[in-house]
Design a protein that fits this description.
- There is one protein chain.
- With 95 residues, the protein is an alpha+beta fold.
- The protein is 18% helix and 19% strand.
- It has one domain.
- Strands 1-2-3 form a three-stranded antiparallel beta sheet.
- The protein is globular, with a radius of gyration of 13 Å.
């Protein structure tokens, strides 16, 4: 996995959420050859060592709605079940 995320020809471009099972969501990547690929979140989840909250805040007043827009890769500061996936995105982007 390190070889993949450190590859300078790979760029994360999106996240397709799966609200019933977050690890079945997809990270979307572009390769310099103009190909796009998707890889399950579960393949990257061991990169995150922080807390995973139990409650999902989607649709609440606290939710910023980032997960509803596949091209939005911003981190989420809420104590939401989905926030850890947003942190994994940041880890991948920072590599």
């Amino acid at each position: 996995m390190d070889d993949f995320i450190y590859d300078p020809e790979i760029e994360i471009i999106g996240y397709q959420v799966h609200f019933k099972d977050l690890e079945k969501g997809f990270f979307l990547f572009n390769h310099s050859c103009r190909g796009t690929m998707s890889i399950n979140v579960e393949e990257f989840s061991d990169m995150y060592q922080g807390p995973i909250f139990q409650e999902r805040l989607t649709g609440s007043d606290q939710c910023s709605g980032y997960c509803l827009h596949h091209s939005n890769l911003k981190p989420c500061s809420e104590k939401c079940e989905c926030a850890y996936v947003r942190e994994v995105i940041q880890i991948i982007k920072d590599k």
